[in-house]
Design brief:
The chain has 248 residues and is α+β, with helices and mostly antiparallel strands. The protein has six helices and ten strands.
């Protein structure tokens, strides 16, 4: 992680995007642009056509795809790209978030309000299941980038405060907190909290990680595929998992 380079990338990308935005047409353009500038400062290496697809970044180290959501859209790309070179997928997770409101009529922007929602590394599992087939490919790397960011929403919704069903305008990165790199299947062991050992259930994982049972089940899907854990039995309806020996 290079915080200084990231902050420079944010400034560069945000300056470039000024004047390009149409009200209510943006999703997470600023996050995508900042991460692309962070991982590849040379614009000549971005938006490269390879076969029937366009790669976000392509250079000596292979292809880098910045994907803020909907990994299902990557399936065909990965099938193509992994045949030729190493592919790194970068996924931003907002670990610390603020909310600001933009009045589309006056352009006035409200002060920051801290959001109670905090993303975690487990949020990546909801996307990774769509490209699970790539996780054990030696040419594949996954990087989860934990960010501090502002969500900017338009005051164009319902109600007196115009906030209900309002439009997402942009998500603006502020700082980088850490990078979680998954280079090989065993790296997904970091999804197992240290307090878990031996045999456990999805309920145990959910409690230890502070996540929902549903998300714990998705994480165990990933952990089973990467052979970090194995299903070893059942206790009633509960599936029992066991952590595999790293040397095995």
């Amino acid at each position: 992680m290079d915080r200084e380079r990231f902050l420079a990338a944010v400034e560069k990308s945000c300056n470039r995007l000024k004047g390009e935005k149409g009200i209510g047409t943006l999703g997470e353009k600023s996050v995508h642009a900042a991460l692309k500038a962070y991982f590849e400062p040379q614009s000549d290496n971005t938006e490269i056509r390879i076969g029937d697809f366009v790669a976000d970044i392509a250079g000596e180290d292979g292809i880098i795809e910045i994907q803020t959501r909907q990994f299902s859209r990557l399936v065909k790309k990965l099938d193509c790209f992994l045949e030729y070179t190493h592919v790194t997928v970068v996924y931003p997770i907002i670990a610390k978030k603020y909310v600001r409101w933009l009045d589309p009529e006056t352009g006035e922007l409200s002060a920051r309000r801290v959001s109670p929602r905090k993303g975690s590394i487990y949020d990546a599992c909801k996307e990774l299941v769509s490209i699970k087939f790539a996780l054990d490919n030696p040419r594949f790397t996954f990087i989860a980038v934990m960010l501090e960011a502002e969500d900017i929403r338009l005051l164009d919704g319902y109600g007196k405060d115009k906030k209900k069903h309002s439009t997402k305008f942009d998500r603006v990165p502020i700082d980088i907190l850490c990078e979680c790199r998954f280079e090989c299947p065993r790296d997904y062991m970091m999804l197992i909290p240290p307090e878990l050992s031996g045999r456990f259930t999805s309920k145990d994982l959910a409690k230890a990680a502070g996540i929902s049972r549903t998300l714990a089940g998705i994480a165990l899907n990933i952990l089973t595929y990467t052979e970090c854990v194995s299903r070893v039995g059942k206790n009633g309806r509960e599936i029992i998992y066991e952590i595999n020996d790293p040397k095995g």
